[in-house]
Automatic annotation (TrEMBL):
PANTHER family the UniProt entry points to: ABC TRANSPORTER I FAMILY MEMBER 6, CHLOROPLASTIC
Keyword Lyase attributed: no
Entry keyword set: ATP-binding, Nucleotide-binding
GO MF, one example: ATP binding
Domain ABC transporter: start-end pairs: 2-246
Protein name as annotated: Fe-S cluster assembly ATP-binding protein
Protein species of origin: Halomonas korlensis
InterPro entries xref list: AAA+_ATPase, ABC_transporter-like_ATP-bd, ABC_transporter-like_CS, FeS-cluster_ATPase_SufC, P-loop_NTPase
Amino acid sequence: MLEVKDLHVTVEGSEILKGLSLTIKAGEVHALMGPNGAGKSTLSAVIAGKDGYEVTQGSITFEGQDVLEMEIEERARAGLLLGFQYPVEIPGVKNIYLLKAALNAQREARGEAEIAAPEFMKLIKDQLAFMRMDGSFLQRAVNQGFSGGEKKRNEILQMLVLQPKLAMLDEIDSGLDIDAMRIVAEGINSLRAEDRGILLVTHYQRLLDFVVPDKVHVLVDGRIVKSGDAQLAHELEARGYDWLLEESAA
Protein backbone atom coordinates (compact mmCIF):
# COMPACT_ATOMS: atom_id res chain seq x y z
CA MET A 1 0.00 0.00 0.00
CA LEU A 2 2.72 2.48 1.03
CA GLU A 3 6.34 2.23 -0.04
CA VAL A 4 8.92 4.73 1.23
CA LYS A 5 12.40 4.23 -0.20
CA ASP A 6 15.65 5.94 0.85
CA LEU A 7 13.84 9.14 1.86
CA HIS A 8 15.97 12.20 2.61
CA VAL A 9 14.18 15.32 3.84
CA THR A 10 15.50 18.72 4.90
CA VAL A 11 13.75 21.44 6.89
CA GLU A 12 15.19 24.96 6.69
CA GLY A 13 18.48 23.54 5.48
CA SER A 14 18.81 20.85 8.16
CA GLU A 15 18.56 17.20 7.14
CA ILE A 16 15.93 15.46 9.27
CA LEU A 17 15.30 12.19 7.44
CA LYS A 18 18.50 10.49 6.26
CA GLY A 19 17.60 7.52 4.13
CA LEU A 20 14.39 6.21 5.68
CA SER A 21 12.68 3.20 4.11
CA LEU A 22 9.31 1.79 5.19
CA THR A 23 6.69 -0.55 3.70
CA ILE A 24 3.09 -0.72 4.96
CA LYS A 25 0.81 -3.38 3.50
CA ALA A 26 -2.99 -3.23 3.46
CA GLY A 27 -4.44 -4.55 6.70
CA GLU A 28 -1.39 -3.67 8.80
CA VAL A 29 -0.98 -1.32 11.76
CA HIS A 30 2.53 0.09 12.15
CA ALA A 31 3.84 2.06 15.12
CA LEU A 32 6.72 4.50 14.65
CA MET A 33 8.60 5.32 17.85
CA GLY A 34 11.81 7.09 18.76
CA PRO A 35 13.33 9.92 20.80
CA ASN A 36 12.45 13.58 20.32
CA GLY A 37 13.85 15.08 17.13
CA ALA A 38 14.31 11.72 15.40
CA GLY A 39 12.01 12.68 12.50
CA LYS A 40 8.81 10.77 13.33
CA SER A 41 6.40 13.63 12.70
CA THR A 42 8.41 14.70 9.66
CA LEU A 43 7.66 11.42 7.89
CA SER A 44 3.88 11.66 8.24
CA ALA A 45 3.94 15.38 7.33
CA VAL A 46 5.88 14.69 4.13
CA ILE A 47 3.56 11.84 3.11
CA ALA A 48 0.53 14.07 3.68
CA GLY A 49 2.07 16.97 1.74
CA LYS A 50 2.60 19.55 4.48
CA ASP A 51 4.51 22.68 3.41
CA GLY A 52 8.03 23.44 4.61
CA TYR A 53 9.66 20.08 3.88
CA GLU A 54 12.08 19.49 1.01
CA VAL A 55 12.58 15.97 -0.29
CA THR A 56 16.14 15.81 -1.60
CA GLN A 57 16.28 12.09 -2.36
CA GLY A 58 14.12 8.99 -2.37
CA SER A 59 10.53 8.14 -3.27
CA ILE A 60 7.08 7.62 -1.77
CA THR A 61 4.47 5.54 -3.59
CA PHE A 62 0.89 4.88 -2.47
CA GLU A 63 -0.99 2.13 -4.28
CA GLY A 64 1.49 2.54 -7.12
CA GLN A 65 1.06 6.33 -7.39
CA ASP A 66 3.97 8.74 -6.98
CA VAL A 67 2.92 10.65 -3.88
CA LEU A 68 5.53 13.36 -4.31
CA GLU A 69 3.98 14.34 -7.65
CA MET A 70 0.50 14.72 -6.14
CA GLU A 71 -1.01 17.94 -4.80
CA ILE A 72 -2.11 17.80 -1.18
CA GLU A 73 -5.80 17.62 -2.09
CA GLU A 74 -5.05 14.77 -4.53
CA ARG A 75 -3.44 12.84 -1.69
CA ALA A 76 -6.53 13.37 0.46
CA ARG A 77 -8.85 12.23 -2.33
CA ALA A 78 -6.67 9.17 -2.90
CA GLY A 79 -7.33 8.12 0.69
CA LEU A 80 -4.42 9.53 2.71
CA LEU A 81 -5.38 11.16 6.00
CA LEU A 82 -3.21 12.75 8.69
CA GLY A 83 -4.48 13.14 12.25
CA PHE A 84 -2.58 16.04 13.78
CA GLN A 85 -0.64 16.14 17.02
CA TYR A 86 -1.83 19.73 17.41
CA PRO A 87 -5.18 20.03 15.58
CA VAL A 88 -5.73 23.55 14.29
CA GLU A 89 -8.71 25.71 15.14
CA ILE A 90 -10.83 26.98 12.23
CA PRO A 91 -13.00 29.84 13.51
CA GLY A 92 -16.25 30.39 11.63
CA VAL A 93 -16.37 26.89 10.11
CA LYS A 94 -18.74 24.49 11.84
CA ASN A 95 -17.74 20.87 12.31
CA ILE A 96 -20.79 19.62 10.43
CA TYR A 97 -19.96 21.73 7.34
CA LEU A 98 -16.31 20.62 7.29
CA LEU A 99 -17.26 16.95 7.58
CA LYS A 100 -19.92 17.12 4.89
CA ALA A 101 -17.73 19.10 2.47
CA ALA A 102 -14.80 16.72 2.96
CA LEU A 103 -16.96 13.63 2.53
CA ASN A 104 -18.60 14.99 -0.63
CA ALA A 105 -15.21 15.95 -2.11
CA GLN A 106 -14.10 12.39 -1.52
CA ARG A 107 -17.28 11.00 -3.11
CA GLU A 108 -16.88 13.30 -6.12
CA ALA A 109 -13.33 12.02 -6.63
CA ARG A 110 -14.76 8.49 -6.79
CA GLY A 111 -17.44 9.55 -9.26
CA GLU A 112 -20.24 9.26 -6.71
CA ALA A 113 -23.13 11.64 -6.07
CA GLU A 114 -23.24 13.89 -3.01
CA ILE A 115 -24.47 12.15 0.11
CA ALA A 116 -28.16 12.71 0.88
CA ALA A 117 -28.84 14.81 3.98
CA PRO A 118 -30.71 12.06 5.92
CA GLU A 119 -27.96 9.53 5.17
CA PHE A 120 -25.27 11.99 6.26
CA MET A 121 -27.05 12.84 9.52
CA LYS A 122 -27.47 9.15 10.39
CA LEU A 123 -23.77 8.51 9.64
CA ILE A 124 -22.57 11.47 11.70
CA LYS A 125 -24.87 10.75 14.65
CA ASP A 126 -23.78 7.11 14.77
CA GLN A 127 -20.11 8.09 14.80
CA LEU A 128 -20.65 10.82 17.39
CA ALA A 129 -22.26 8.28 19.68
CA PHE A 130 -19.40 5.84 19.11
CA MET A 131 -16.85 8.53 20.09
CA ARG A 132 -18.94 9.62 23.14
CA MET A 133 -19.28 13.10 21.67
CA ASP A 134 -22.28 15.33 22.27
CA GLY A 135 -24.37 16.44 19.28
CA SER A 136 -23.46 20.06 20.05
CA PHE A 137 -19.98 19.37 18.63
CA LEU A 138 -21.45 19.55 15.13
CA GLN A 139 -22.50 23.19 15.55
CA ARG A 140 -19.22 24.33 17.11
CA ALA A 141 -16.41 25.86 15.07
CA VAL A 142 -13.76 23.27 14.21
CA ASN A 143 -11.65 22.71 17.34
CA GLN A 144 -12.33 26.22 18.64
CA GLY A 145 -12.48 26.17 22.42
CA PHE A 146 -12.06 22.40 22.46
CA SER A 147 -10.03 20.74 25.19
CA GLY A 148 -7.02 18.68 24.16
CA GLY A 149 -8.99 15.46 24.48
CA GLU A 150 -11.93 16.86 22.50
CA LYS A 151 -9.60 17.88 19.67
CA LYS A 152 -8.11 14.41 19.49
CA ARG A 153 -11.54 12.76 19.51
CA ASN A 154 -12.57 15.15 16.75
CA GLU A 155 -9.62 13.96 14.66
CA ILE A 156 -10.79 10.36 15.08
CA LEU A 157 -14.38 11.38 14.28
CA GLN A 158 -13.16 12.83 10.97
CA MET A 159 -11.41 9.56 10.19
CA LEU A 160 -14.48 7.50 11.00
CA VAL A 161 -16.55 9.64 8.63
CA LEU A 162 -13.99 9.74 5.80
CA GLN A 163 -12.76 6.11 6.09
CA PRO A 164 -9.27 6.72 4.64
CA LYS A 165 -7.22 3.99 2.98
CA LEU A 166 -4.12 5.01 4.96
CA ALA A 167 -4.63 6.73 8.31
CA MET A 168 -1.57 8.42 9.80
CA LEU A 169 -1.91 9.54 13.41
CA ASP A 170 0.78 11.87 14.70
CA GLU A 171 1.00 11.46 18.50
CA ILE A 172 -2.78 11.24 18.77
CA ASP A 173 -2.24 10.04 22.36
CA SER A 174 -0.41 13.14 23.63
CA GLY A 175 -2.29 15.03 26.30
CA LEU A 176 -4.99 12.38 26.77
CA ASP A 177 -6.18 11.07 30.13
CA ILE A 178 -6.85 7.35 30.43
CA ASP A 179 -10.56 7.60 29.61
CA ALA A 180 -9.98 9.70 26.49
CA MET A 181 -7.17 7.31 25.52
CA ARG A 182 -9.57 4.36 25.62
CA ILE A 183 -12.15 6.16 23.48
CA VAL A 184 -9.56 7.24 20.91
CA ALA A 185 -8.12 3.72 20.84
CA GLU A 186 -11.59 2.24 20.26
CA GLY A 187 -12.00 4.58 17.30
CA ILE A 188 -8.64 3.54 15.86
CA ASN A 189 -9.34 -0.16 16.36
CA SER A 190 -12.71 0.19 14.62
CA LEU A 191 -10.81 1.36 11.52
CA ARG A 192 -8.69 -1.78 11.31
CA ALA A 193 -9.57 -3.53 8.06
CA GLU A 194 -8.00 -5.77 5.43
CA ASP A 195 -7.99 -2.93 2.88
CA ARG A 196 -6.67 -0.19 5.20
CA GLY A 197 -3.26 0.66 6.61
CA ILE A 198 -2.61 2.62 9.82
CA LEU A 199 0.58 4.40 10.88
CA LEU A 200 0.79 5.45 14.54
CA VAL A 201 3.50 7.93 15.53
CA THR A 202 3.91 7.78 19.30
CA HIS A 203 6.40 8.23 22.11
CA TYR A 204 4.77 5.89 24.54
CA GLN A 205 3.84 2.25 24.98
CA ARG A 206 0.52 3.10 26.66
CA LEU A 207 -1.39 3.69 23.38
CA LEU A 208 -0.05 0.40 22.07
CA ASP A 209 -1.60 -1.42 25.02
CA PHE A 210 -4.97 -0.52 23.50
CA VAL A 211 -4.05 -0.54 19.78
CA VAL A 212 -1.70 -3.49 19.37
CA PRO A 213 0.45 -2.91 16.27
CA ASP A 214 1.53 -5.54 13.79
CA LYS A 215 4.95 -3.93 13.49
CA VAL A 216 6.97 -1.44 15.53
CA HIS A 217 9.78 0.65 14.07
CA VAL A 218 12.30 2.75 15.98
CA LEU A 219 13.50 5.92 14.33
CA VAL A 220 16.82 7.36 15.45
CA ASP A 221 18.56 10.31 13.79
CA GLY A 222 16.45 10.14 10.63
CA ARG A 223 16.69 6.40 10.01
CA ILE A 224 14.81 3.31 11.13
CA VAL A 225 17.37 1.44 13.24
CA LYS A 226 15.22 -1.44 14.51
CA SER A 227 11.91 -3.09 13.63
CA GLY A 228 9.95 -5.79 15.38
CA ASP A 229 6.54 -6.85 16.60
CA ALA A 230 4.51 -5.37 19.45
CA GLN A 231 6.97 -6.77 21.99
CA LEU A 232 9.58 -4.24 20.84
CA ALA A 233 7.45 -1.42 22.25
CA HIS A 234 7.44 -3.14 25.67
CA GLU A 235 11.23 -3.46 25.47
CA LEU A 236 11.54 0.25 24.74
CA GLU A 237 9.27 1.05 27.68
CA ALA A 238 11.54 -0.96 29.96
CA ARG A 239 14.95 0.02 28.55
CA GLY A 240 14.42 3.42 26.95
CA TYR A 241 16.21 4.45 23.77
CA ASP A 242 19.81 4.73 25.00
CA TRP A 243 20.78 1.20 23.96
CA LEU A 244 19.56 1.83 20.43
CA LEU A 245 21.31 5.20 20.31
CA GLU A 246 24.54 3.43 21.26
CA GLU A 247 23.99 0.70 18.66
CA SER A 248 23.24 3.21 15.89
CA ALA A 249 26.34 5.23 16.76
CA ALA A 250 28.57 2.15 16.73
